Amino acid sequence: xxxIKSEIYPVIWKNDQVLLIDQTRLPNEYSVxxxxxxxxxxxAIKTMIVRGAPAIGVAAAYGMYLGALEIETDQRKDFLQxxxxxAQLLQQTRPTAVNLFWAIxxxxxxxxxxxxxxxxxxxxxxxxxxxxQQEDLETCYAIGKNGLSVxxxxxxxxxxxxxxxxxxxxxxxxxxxxxxxxxAWQSGRLLRVYADETRPRLQGAKLTAWECVQDNxxxxxxxxxxxxxxxxxxxxxxxxxxxxxIAANGDTANKIGTYSLAVVSKxxxxxxxxxxxxxxxxxxxxxxxxxxxxxxxxVEIYQVGKTVICPEGADFYNPAFDVTPAELxxxxxxxxxxxxxxxxxxxxxx
Length: 350
Ligand SMILES: CSC[C@H]1O[C@H](OP(=O)(O)O)[C@H](O)[C@@H]1O
Description:
Layout: E1 11-14, E2 17-21, E3 32-35, H1 38-46, H2 53-70, H3 76-91, H4 98-113, H5 118-148, E4 158-162, H6 177-186, E5 190-196, H7 203-214, E6 219-222, H8 227-232, E7 238-241, E8 245-247, E9 252-255, H9 258-267, E10 272-275, E11 281-282, H10 299-302, E12 303-304, E13 307-308, E14 321-324, E15 331-334, E16 337-339
Parallel strand pairs: 4-5, 4-7, 5-6, 7-10, 8-11, 10-15
Antiparallel strand pairs: 1-2, 2-3, 8-9, 9-14, 12-13, 15-16
Helix pairs in contact: 1-2, 2-3, 2-4, 2-5, 3-4, 4-5, 5-6
The chain binds ligand LNRAV4D5.
The ligand CSC[C@H]1O[C@H](OP(=O)(O)O)[C@H](O)[C@@H]1O binds next to α2 and β9.
């Protein structure tokens, strides 16, 4: 079997600060940003210093605690009112990943349900943020294990294509889709990963490739446009991606480019899996039509590094996510097991 390192934790609580791996500087520079204020945490999420649906949920939870520390009152009502303002600040950072809103709601619920003093509430908020982080790490290990049970049985060593980054950097650690890939590697079930570079922010080329190299997992980086060709050439046995928001019927919002991967996978009868924690499922949304799709600054399209690659006069469109219809998804792998999209309702209130 194969050993892995997988000690990549993008968010660390240490000495009354949050330490974030600066994911905008990887893979060329491993640097850590120290966050002590809720405003700085909001900025870190918006600028993608920390990114990845579960990871921004964990980051937002600590952002709520940092915001609570900034509230200087011992009056419960006043404290809760100001904590709502911190929640709004963090909710305005990125609209698609439901994990962010789930984590903020859980922190607010904790505060409202706590009957102690303001100081006692603050202490419980820290514990809740730490619980959210630990639970997500354990969830990723469970997703990794559950993913093994649905991977194709042949060939024994699989060639798995993935999109964007869904590893330790995108979660509390270990990863969702990349967590399944790690588990396959540890079990001797993986031959190679094909990582879409994932324009425009290049999370695949920069982050997934970096995580695979850290764990000595064979990885081939391809441009997004090559995925269909690789499938047509018979180079891919399965596709596994993450998710930012899954509607109740299984429609899934994920990094832009996921939908086209699903269409081509269907065309070539290649199983297409989504790996995500229950905190990514939005049971209040009946289908994917209402999932808010973040549109980011066009500079991400027309500038690569410091080089402008497009002429003056061109227009730009930069949606950060797209929605894959449930009928294109073979199974959704969660910490509770793998489910057909049509069976997601079995997971409600689990
Ligand atoms: C563990 S799934 C992470 C999910 O989030 C990513 O988006 P972003 O890099 O913009 O935060 C991408 O959609 C991944 O699939």
